[in-house]
Structure formats: C-alpha cells, structure tokens
Amino acid sequence: MAGATPASNAQIGRAAGLKMGKATRDAFGAALKDLGNEFPNVVVVDGDVGNSTRTEVFAKAFPHRSFNVGIAESNMVGVAGGLAATGKIPVVSSFACFLLCNAYDQIRMSVAYPGMNVKLVGSHAGISIGEDGASQMGIEDVALACSLPGFTVVVPADAASARKATRAMLEHTGPVYLRCGRIEVPEVYTDDAPFQLGKASQLRDGNDVTIIANGLTVGMALDAAVALSANGIHARVLDMHTVKPLDEAAIVAAAKETGRIVVAEEHLHAGGLGSAVAAVVVRTRPVPMEFVNLGDTYAESGDPAGLLQKYGLTAEAIVAAVQRVRNRG
C-alpha cells in the first residue's frame, strides 16, 4: 500500500488560488438530472453502481427512464445499443475500468461499428480512486475509447466543465465517452465559462513552454505554472478536455510559439492524451516534449494523495518535466 504524504488532493490548485469544488462524477449526476426534461429521449442504463456513478440522481427523478441491468457490463452496453436503435439517447454508466475493459467488444460492435448515439460515462477513473486498488482503477480507458472509430472522448477538469460536457455530449450526435473522477477537484472554471467539444481552453499564457493537461492534472498544471513563474519561466497552460477530436490548431500554435510541450494526464503513458498530442506535434511542428503520467505500471491501493505522489502525478513532477524539456534546447 502506498504510504501517506503531506500533500492531499485539497492542495491541488492551491498555488493557483483555486477553491476546492465537487468531484466531476457529482457534477455529471446533477447535470444529467437537470437536463432530463430538456432531453426527453435520454435514458440511463446502469450496472448496479448508480450510487457511485451518481446516475441514481436521474433515476430518482425519472424512474421510468432508468434501467439497472445489474453487474453485467457487456449486457448493459448491448441494451444501450438497442435503445439507441429505437431513437433513445442512452447514457451508460459504470466505473471506467468495468465499462471500457469488461465491455469493450460490445462497445465496438454494438456502439462504435453501427455509429449508435450512445453516451458512455466512466466514473472512478485513474489512480485517484485510492483504496479500491488496481482492479477498479481505469487507467487505460482513454486509450481504449480513442481507438474506437467515430468516438468523441472527453475528460473534464472540474465540476463546471463536467456539467458543460454533460450537456455537450447529449447535444452531440454520435458515440461519446465522458471520463469522471471520484475525488473532489479544484474549481478551475466559473459556470459561465465557454466549453466546446474539440476546442482546448487556454487557462494561462506564456511563451517559454506549454503544459497540456486534462482532468485532475489541470489544477496541477496551473500550480506548476505559478511555481515556474517565480523562476522567470512563463508557461502556457492548455486544458485539452477533448482528447478526440483533438484541437490540433492549439497544439500547433503552442509548438510554434513556445517551442516546448509537456503533457500531463492521469493515465498510462501509452495511448492517452500524451500519445495523441505527440502524434500531432511530430506530424506538424516537431519540438522537444516531456510527459507526466502513470508510466507503464498498475498502481497500488492507498490514499489518493499518497498514490498521486508515489506515481509522480503532482505539480512538482510537472515542474521537473518542464526543466527537463528546457534543458533539451
């Protein structure tokens, strides 16, 4: 078990002056219920974890539009594909690892291949779920979702952007994967901040390096930028909440204008945001890059802060990555 550390998730965003807000799973659940009347074709299909994914909020408000299929993720996705074929907009929710790993073939054949208008919501993503351990940590989910043709893949940074992302995925025609987290995260955005699928949000300007992040690591990136500025290094910070389709224009501009890029994400090294950004950079404007992620390993059971510290998902790790990439010229 990973040991405790003086740091905690409550300290993420502190250097940047951010207040602690709700978990993105809580924001998703509340937003889904609030949008229920506006989107009467929305139905929820859950795998007996609605109290954790927060779809139970929608289920209590719209019981006739909510279906609990039990702990049977593959069947759950098949049901959703059938509902989508009748004109419904199914929102399928479970833990990210159960949804993407257990039901991948059904997602591929019942959702991606026929291009069904199904919305997949993976809760409890990343290692920050803590004590539940490796068997319940979705750390390869973004890679799996991005590999599916026609999918849109979204990783919101905070509650406000999770609410906006929930609306955006319901308005979008086609399959979507929305990644949510368990722990509380800093308030990066106000409720009136713009949100557009496929369009990165620039949170801080700079011309020395660009830090591209999403989800939990956005608050860390902002903290890292504050620390770097104290040493005369001005970092641009991009929230790349949509991993697919990627905002290539923002990446190309960052490479051209800052000359160095660091990508931070709560995901395996392979197949996630870093891989997607690197593919754009090498094709359009090659510049030195560094990556902050889980690497090529499963994590342990432990408190969220201790796990993030042990596996190098911190503002300090981002600062170190910036220093490495600057040393490469």
From TrEMBL:
Residues 22-187 form the Transketolase-like pyrimidine-binding domain. It comes from the Bacteria. The keyword Transferase applies. GO terms for molecular function: metal ion binding; thiamine pyrophosphate binding; transketolase activity. Keywords: Calcium, Magnesium, Metal-binding, Thiamine pyrophosphate, Transferase. InterPro entries: THDP-binding, Transketo_C/PFOR_II, Transketolase-like, Transketolase-like_Pyr-bd, Transketolase_C. It comes from Schlesneria paludicola. CDD domains: TPP_PYR_DXS_TK_like (cd07033). Homodimer. Belongs to the transketolase family. This is Transketolase family protein. Gene3D superfamilies: 3.40.50.920, 3.40.50.970. Its cofactor is Ca(2+); thiamine diphosphate.
